[in-house]
Design a protein that fits this description.
The structure is a homodimer of 255-residue chains. Chain A is 24% helix and 32% strand. With 255 residues, the first copy, chain A, is of the alpha+beta class. Chains A, B: It comes from Streptomyces antnestii.
């Protein structure tokens, strides 16, 4: 906590423990190492199990620890910077992503009400729902649902199969025919739906960073993307140089 | 969950309860209303208290519910879109924020190690640490620490008081003399330090969206900002039109 520790407001017990634990992680453990069990840890630091558990949860929230099914609690690697947008980035999905996103599937689906309102589709009207996943350093880090109204891809052939990866690529290809006027993004905290959780190797309800992107063309919203990023392992970057190189949780740098 | 419910992977019990509760919130409760106690709710939905609690935690994570000290659990208003950057935004802190940020204080402080590395300052070297808070709709939504090395503001008068709001404004004013070449941002999940928590009316450890911004001038990092936004009430927006108008948690729109 740098020089501010003495000036700071009084902190709860688990918070102090968290700081101590965090230092122990730095000095005694290496990335991937499994932590001793809760009983041993609580005994070592002279705290109640409940206090220990709060501190561990906090460290998990900050990306320092990972709880993995069948493995236990391990020391997490530093978060991965995942570029969401550069300043110059005004591109359709799939246009210049390189290999970051994998196009998985497309199927006709009724979008959630809030998405339908933004897209201006009628209640119950189906749109193309393209599913993509994003891989970083060999691991899935995000799952995306991209909603494309039929009116945005009028030339899309009805002869092709209505779903599948080839269909998904066709939807993206047709979308790129439109002129892209602009895009908006929003980032908020959410939690993993069961299907996303499975894909991203998390438990349902795990904290996620949800990035909602609206793509404009000819004064209207031509498509809308809802992408769910693992909050434990990802740092979303925006800007010129592809990310701010800061490691570990915010409490280690924010005072 | 729209039309995907049948295709989706099996969901845990509390997840289903969460969906049911979410619908009840829409139809039976209004914003700010206090929820019945846990025992009554568990009885009404025929679930164990532990299951209920998991579902409530989930809804809190998604911004649908708020737990307020001395009040209980209330129905949260929709998240507020807080503009973090527009496409054209290349500005120094305080340059064109309008009334969004309030400059609170500045004092000499040793930055955290990771920040010092980015700023290129020596270990133990003090920098100007400017503290600002951001208010939206009358409520504090973010707390920021801006680190400015002495070398970025060489003309800053040493005659002025070394700390206080006037000093903070002087640091920002001197910083604006530099040409701004670019800025990078990163967003990640973090948790509230005790001092931020108090300022933002949250408990220490509450989930926060941490926005780290690096400001470049003459090929170097001239300043670095670490801003902590309330994750329960804020949706951070980036882009052209000041935000994507989507209400409520991601699960209501993301399938």
């Amino acid at each position: 906590m740098g020089t501010t520790q003495v000036e700071a407001a009084p902190e709860p017990k688990y918070w102090h423990l968290k700081t101590v634990l965090s230092e122990a992680l730095d000095s005694e453990f290496s990335v991937g190492e499994i932590l001793p069990n809760e009983r041993d840890l609580a005994a070592r630091f002279g705290v109640a199990r409940a206090t220990l558990r709060q501190a561990l949860e906090q460290l998990e929230l900050e990306g320092r620890l990972q709880r993995r099914r069948g493995v236990g609690t391990t020391v997490a690697p530093p978060r991965v910077g995942v570029a969401v947008a550069s300043s110059a980035d005004q591109e359709w999905p799939g246009e210049a992503d390189g290999d970051a996103w994998q196009t998985v599937d497309s199927e006709p689906a009724v979008p959630p009400t809030a998405v339908a309102q933004v897209l201006g589709t009628a209640p119950g009207e189906r749109v193309h729902r393209v599913r993509r996943t994003r891989v970083s350093q060999g691991r899935p880090v995000a799952a995306e649902l991209l909603y494309v109204p039929a009116s945005s891809v009028p030339e899309l052939s009805a002869i092709d199969a209505p779903s599948g990866p080839a269909r998904a690529r066709a939807v993206l290809r047709e979308l790129r025919r439109l002129g892209l006027e602009g895009q908006d993004r929003a980032v908020e905290l959410g939690s993993a739906r069961a299907d996303d959780a499975k894909e991203l190797d998390r438990l349902p309800g795990a904290p996620m960073l949800v990035v909602t992107t609206r793509f404009y063309s000819e004064g209207e919203t031509a498509a809308m993307s809802v992408a769910t990023y693992r909050a434990d392992t990802c740092r979303l970057t925006f800007g010129d140089s592809g990310g701010v190189e800061i490691h570990h949780g915010p409490d280690r740098r924010a005072s």
